[in-house]
Design goal:
With about 180 residues, the protein is an alpha/beta fold. The chain has helices at about 10-25, 75-90, 105-115, 130, 160-184; strands spanning about 45, 50-55, 60-70, 95-100, 120-125, 140-145, 150-155.
């Protein structure tokens, strides 16, 4: 026989229910993977100079966030194309942030080879940024509008698809420029 409280409930049942509800409260909350139209997580790592890169600081320009690795051929091709787009458009219109997903010891030599790139390079060796963006494979590119919302997400495309992705980046920049011109 189990002890009974003043309401006729068995203490063991009540205790079990209490523990179950507490366990639910203690479960870690799942992060929603950002989708088109959402405002993505702001933190993108630290740049080449050790300064925090936050999307909030880049509002007012198109931001391209690409996740890459040194062994990924389409990623490396994409980096040079995105660098060219940023140089031609100007950093005041488009800002590219390339988030490397490898261990720091693998990333550092490549960062030195890319030292002339003007895009922002960051490293996510712990995988926190990758996880917050729902990156399960690379290449993975996120196009963000001037207002800070996601315009498009491209996942796992091949090297042959890079020109089409770049066309979409250019179309986004044109659309954002046209919208800004109409407001003036």
């Amino acid at each position: 026989m189990y002890p009974v409280d003043g309401y006729g409930c068995r203490m063991k049942t009540w205790l079990a229910a209490l523990l179950a509800s507490t366990a639910i409260l203690l479960l870690p909350t799942a992060h929603a993977i950002p989708q088109v139209g959402d405002v993505p997580p702001s933190y993108l790592g630290k740049d080449q100079k050790g300064k925090k890169v936050e999307l909030e600081d880049l509002r007012g320009k198109v931001v391209i966030v690409t996740f890459w690795a040194t062994w990924c051929v389409p990623c490396r091709k994409e980096l040079s194309v995105l660098e060219t787009i940023q140089q031609h458009a100007g950093r005041d219109r488009v800002h590219v942030v390339a988030v490397n997903i490898e261990k720091a010891r693998v990333y550092r030599p490549m960062k030195r080879r890319l030292k002339d790139y003007k895009m922002t390079l960051t490293n996510d060796h712990y995988g926190r940024i990758k996880k917050s963006y729902g990156v399960n494979g690379i290449p993975h590119l996120v196009m963000i509008k001037k207002d800070g919302t996601i315009a498009a997400i491209k996942r796992g495309y091949s090297e042959a698809m890079v020109p089409a992705v770049i066309d979409e980046v250019n179309a986004l920049m044109r659309a954002e420029y046209a919208t800004a011109t109409e407001r003036q």
